[in-house]
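Example: Carbohydrate-binding module family 96 domain-containing protein.
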Amino acid sequence: MTYRYMKGTMSMRLRAITLLLVLLGSTAAAVTPAVAEAEKTVSFASAEDSYVSQAGPGKTHHTVTWLSVCTTPCDGAAASERGAFVRFDVKDVPANAVNVTMTLDVQSVRTTDTTLEVRPVKGEWTADSLTFDNRPALGEVITTHKGLTAGGTAKLDVSSAFTGNGAYDFALTSPSGAHGVLHSSRATSGQGPKLTIGYDTETATPAPSGPLPFAIPSTATLRASERKVFAHYFTPYPISLNNRTGADDYYTKHYLTPTGESNKHLAYGGLLRDRPIPRGVLSGDWQLADMKQEIETAVEAGLDGFTVDVLSLTSAHWDRLNTLIKAADAVDPGFKIVLMPDMTSLKTDAATLAAAMAKLATAKSVYRLPDRRLVISPFKAEGQSAAWWTNFMKIMKDTHGITVAFVPVFLNFPSNAAAFAPISYGFSNWGNRSPAGQSGIASNIAKAHELKKIWMQPVSVQDERPNQGIYDEANNTENLRVTWEKSISGGADWIQLTTWNDFSEGTQFAPSVHNGGAYLDISSYYLTWWKTGKAPAITRDTLYLTHRTQFAAARPTSGTQTKFMLPRSGTSAPRDTVEVLSFLTRAATVKASIGGVEKTYAGQAGLQAKTFPLAYGTNKASVGAVTVTSPWQVKKDFTVQDLQYHAVSSGRK
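Written out as structure tokens, the predicted fold is:
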């Protein structure tokens, strides 16, 4: 009786409200109440799946209709572990998705008491080549499920692994129970693994006010991460060398011109091809002011500090190092200076080096671990033996009372890892500068972790060295993206951006005349992804345009250059392309003008790289009202060979 009364009362109230709105309709528009959007879902069948078996360690199973999961002993046989691998390609989840759930569904062939574990896959694999012997490394358990029913579906909550659109690789393992058999994607339609994502949407976050396509977290949030990002600082190339205006400073008159420094660089067309962004003349301690500016720029980009190349224990390089430390202490002592003795140039004994490092270590900004160990990270550490470095650290401890956390940077890591492992806190290498040279990143990280050491992974843009006559093919921003993405997927502990400002090798991340800060902006995106564990939501459409100003095989049509850069052995094949790197809040049509020829393509939500053949003239790109025009024309006639990629961002005007 009570229920019917309440129901009837509600109906009367609804009719009354409806009548009131009708009566008001002649004089005022009716107000429609806000209605919450229903939860949306998208589902994906597996793009690839297979399993591995310890009993057949070299055998593939990519053609069968089932997936096996079993701990050893399995079915009574020793050395018989089995595990399944599955990949999903997730798309169409909007950047403003919230309350996201992600469920992995697997259907069982038979009833067993199997316990399933879901783990992220950390390495690369393909179903047609996957075997027990070459299976990739796995991450920690995301979720578990006990018990399988024939024809039933096990639903495994993997929401914690969601990071946005992209590829998701999961492994199914078992710590206990009988042999579990699941349907693969080759079974009857609809029985294979499925990934379902549910989400709500919210009002889009306001676009950031700075140049970035996303809202970068606060400095405090980024520094709370144990993962650290340093940029390699090279003291020969500060913002200014002689405190003059750009048209009259040392860079312009001596480094960028073939006739600079009394024709010293004539044969190769000048020492440099790019330079720090010029400034006006400063009063007072202009060198300190410049160092402060560089630190402020790095802090804004999310960096934790500089690894500083210690080239000398005297001279201008030593003075600049001390000025940089002074600037960090003044601007932000939380921005750390990692001491990196350069063993290609330092010709000194262990005691002298120890005394110099101990002197620098008194500064607040010089990097120490939470346990107060001083980080020393020598470049080309193998320039001295492990025994030499053991003596150095003993002197640091016995004479100066400083315990060292030793993180050697090798030119050849595999050849030196075993000898240096007993004395090292971590490892690093100088790395390569082209996509073709990045295949060893995962194995280097795995080797360091196997030896219980942290790994500092080099992340780079490009490399061109006029005075050495060599360059690496970076494939526009591909090398930058690959080194970041492999650092993230491989589980690197620290990152070293190589380099902040070595303009003689063309490797600079620092804002420069020819990159305007674009490479640093792109790295801020990946840095945030790596530190937070989730790709940042894109909140403002942003385009980055990269290209050379001449074809790779071209030679100057005039001028005095006689020594030319050639591709480094093993580098990627030289290519002539313009790349549009887009960060889009949603799918949209992107327009490009390559040498005056109009192009259009379907831009995807999130990050996307699109390349076009290089052509003479001006390059532009736009999406909606967002435009970017490169000020660097591609020319047939030129006087100096320049194989660096120029970059420009729509976010920086």
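The radius of gyration is 29 Å.
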